[in-house]
Amino acid sequence: MAADSKSPRKKKRDIQATDPMAEAGRKIFARQLRRMKSHEAGSRTGEDIESVHQMRVAIRRMRSLFNLIGAHYRRKTVMEYERGLREIARALGAIRDLDVLILDLQDFREDLPPASQEALEPVIALLEDRRRAFRVRLNRLFDSKRYSRFLRRFQRLTKRRGRGARKLKRRETPHQLRHVLPSLLHERLARVRAYDSVLPAADDTVLHALRVEYKQLRYALEFFQPILGRSAGAFLLQVKAMQEILGRINDIAVFSETVAGIDDLPAEQTAILQCYISARDAELAGLRTQFEVAWARFNNRATQRLFSDSLLVLR
Fold first, then answer.
1. What would the mean pLDDT of 76-95 be, rounded to a whole number?
2. Which of 51, 116, 173, 213 could connect to 39 by a Cys-Cys bridge, CB 3.0–4.6 Å?
């Protein structure tokens, strides 16, 4: 009986195809803001590096949502919250990049002879010192009045229906999910598939940009998957597979840039880092081959039909 009494309230909170875009966004922002705040304590201490990662993902999702449906909010509202989210994302990103690099170096160290393992320790220690410095900056931001004020204002946006929403000039202006969402999702997909004209000879910069577009597509689909057709789930698996390959390619590019920026190392440590970069370059060659195969699969007719079929329920 208790479960039945809760179901109507749960259903009321879910997004509906007839929701105005700004109202659907309010519901999604509320979930992502709760997720962001739930990982703040862990991001402060660094005891579990997943806290920084998850907090950063929640922020990325909110920024992506503003990018997707920002036209349905007042410009001043979008600018205010985008500015606050960007500041937090940068502070978290500096730590996350080092988290991933340190883990990767630690894994690489496991296969080295004992003397080389010992020689790599000072490099890892140096990176850990940098990470601690970035965490001090992050905590300073968390303790600031502007961060507290940002959270209070954002919470008010997520709790009050219509807050920050752009007023309709005419009642017939398309603003419901069922009318607006298909074109938004098609636009997200088009921005991914347009890279077909520059592949497969693209460099790391272009692949990074494609990775960002895949993230935008993935987030948009995940936000609204509850009101899409069943095939959306299968299509999302293809999107995630592409994002994972491109994510690792991007990680290696960041690793190489960071390691190259470490100066004044003894010859032995420099040689070990060169071996590390060579190993990652070899991995990169394999990833590019995987990418070409996955890209062809993503763009075939069967995969693209999954996307089209997922939108039919919005007719």
1. 96
2. 51
Same domain as 275, residue 227: yes
CA distances from 196 to 113, 184, 290, 296, 302 (A): 44, 20, 16, 10, 17
Q: Give pLDDT, residue 179.
A: 95
What pLDDT is recorded for position 5? Answer: 42
Residues 154 and 181 in one domain: no
User: What is the identity of the amino acid at 44?
Assistant: R
User: How much is the mean pLDDT over the chain?
Assistant: 93
Q: How is 245-288 classified by DSSP, letter by letter?
A: HHHHHHHHHHHHHHHHT--S--HHHHHHHHHHHHHHHHHHHHHH
Average pLDDT rounded to a whole number, residues 40-67? 97
Do both 99 and 130 map to the same domain? yes
The answer to whether residue 7 is domain-embedded is no
Please indicate, yes or no, if residue 38 is contained in any of the structural domains: yes
Same structural domain for residues 121 and 180? no
Give the pLDDT score at 176: 94
Average pLDDT of the residues in 245-258: 95
Report whether 99 contacts 138 (CB < 8 A).
no
pLDDT digits (tens, 9 = 90+) for 143-172: 999 999 999 999 999 998 888 898 887 878
Instruction: Answer whether residue 6 is part of any domain.
Output: no
The three state secondary structure string of 158-184 is: HHCCCCCECCCCCCCCCCEHHHHHHHH
Query: Which CATH number covers residue 209?
Result: 1.40.20.10
Question: Does the residue 196 lie in any domain?
Answer: yes
206: amino acid identity, one letter: V
For residue 142, the tally of other CB atoms under 10 A from its CB is 16
User: Count of domains in the chain?
Assistant: 2
Between the CA atoms of 19, 230, 239 and 13, what dihedral angle is there, to the nearest 10 degrees? 30
One domain, residues 121 and 231: no
- Full residue range of the structural domain in which residue 92 is found: 20-158
- Residues forming a β-bridge with 165: 73
Contacts with 228 (C-beta within 8 Å, 6 or more apart), sequence order:
221, 310, 311, 313, 314
